[in-house]
Amino acid sequence: MPAVPFPLVDIRSVANAQNEWVALLLRAAEGSFDDATLQAMFGAPDLLAAVAPLDCILLLDSPALLTPPVLKLLPPNRVVLAVDARSLAEEGVAKRLAGLQLDGYRVLLDGPLPEGTAPPLALRSVSRLVGGDAFPPPPASLPALFGPHLARGVDTLASLRACANAGFSWFSGGYALDEAEADAEDPQQHDDGTTRRRLMTMLALLSRDADSHELETQLKQDPALSYHLLKLVNSAAFSSGLQITSFGQAISRIGRRQLQRWLQLLLYARHDPDGPPNLLLPVAARRGAVLEELCKRDGGDRDEQDLAFMTGVFSLLDRLFRTPMAALLRDLNLPPDVEAALLAREGRLGQRLRLCEISRPARAVLDGAGVDSLSWWQAQLRAYHWAIQVARNV
């Protein structure tokens, strides 16, 4: 642990209208960013390497934070600056932001302009927090020739649609959970749930150590599942260097541990090849990777890490199936601590799962989960790195 605690940073995914992650939004979880925090975040190569090829969007109160030492760490081709529009009331800010844009930075004006302040001609891309009297914004109210415009705090499907109609093209918020419920009620959906039910059957078979023949039988009954499994195990993100061409190879060469992980993730995969990605997939992958990394840091063995990963991935099953979690877990024979975490967010796993779910976790919440702020930062980076790769390969 460093002498001064590492700053608490909230990281949020940003997706486009096609449900593809395009950037990560970084904001201070306590107060505002300062010079020391920004240098701690970007001073090591971990951040930008972990989130590649995505951009980082920095939510800032003022461009005054962008001192020469900080700017030296922020490559213009990877970092987007979302600056509080209220700072334009200060002398010289408009000129400074225009200068940053000339230097290659993409600058978003975050929030409403100060009263009586005209928008600078050079700065036409905006960021807005959804909510309040100004939303939903009028259709086509943002200039189409500029952008991308970012809507953040988009927590419902209705808000997403309103923001898209207004001209926003980047979206951040919890609307993936709302979208999952809407999709489940949509009669136009191609998947009738058969593939996901068969996946749950296979996971139950793995949990009781069934023989490979039983697993292959399930795979052969579902062309969509077969396709997705072979595609996933041969992807760049997961490949062991061996070309897998049969279910027997996938089971015997890859191993049951990895097969179990991939089956857990395939629950969230798109089952219509022409459909958009399922936004629950990277969320579930991130949760699983965070819990696994924290377990590893605690000295947990391989089995304990697997259970931590499973807890994170399974935490969205009730959303995915629109079925009570208790009913879904009935046939999986999970350990009591995993069930307690999934059903009631109890125990160490439950506290850490809750940590993955809340916005802007306070230090007291981290302390309760037995996590220091530096471990939380590093676990988030590793988890986002893995979730990005999963989202691009499934």
Describe the secondary-structure layout.
Layout: E1 9-15, E2 21-28, H1 35-42, H2 46-51, E3 55-60, H3 68-71, E4 79-84, H4 93-102, E5 106-110, E6 126-129, E7 150-152, H5 157-166, E8 170-172, H6 175-185, H7 194-207, H8 212-220, H9 223-233, H10 247-252, H11 256-266, H12 280-297, H13 302-314, H14 317-321, H15 325-329, H16 336-344, H17 347-357, H18 363-368, H19 373-393
Parallel strand pairs: 2-3, 3-4, 4-5, 5-6, 6-7, 7-8
Antiparallel strand pairs: 1-2
Helix pairs in contact: 7-8, 7-11, 9-11, 11-13, 12-13, 12-19, 13-16, 16-17
Protein architecture, described:
The protein folds into three domains: 9-184, Alpha-Beta Barrel (TIM Barrel); 194-266, no CATH class; 280-393, no CATH class. Helix content is 48%, strand content 11%. By secondary structure, the chain is an alpha/beta fold. The chain has 19 helices and eight strands. The protein has an eight-stranded mixed sheet, covered by helices on one side. Helix 9 (223-233) packs across helix 11 (256-266). The chain has helices spanning 35-42, 46-51, 68-71, 93-102, 157-166, 175-185, 194-207, 212-220, 223-233, 247-252, 256-266, 280-297, 302-314, 317-321, 325-329, 336-344, 347-357, 363-368, 373-393; strands at 9-15, 21-28, 55-60, 79-84, 106-110, 126-129, 150-152, 170-172. Residues 189-380 form the HDOD domain. This is HDOD domain-containing protein.
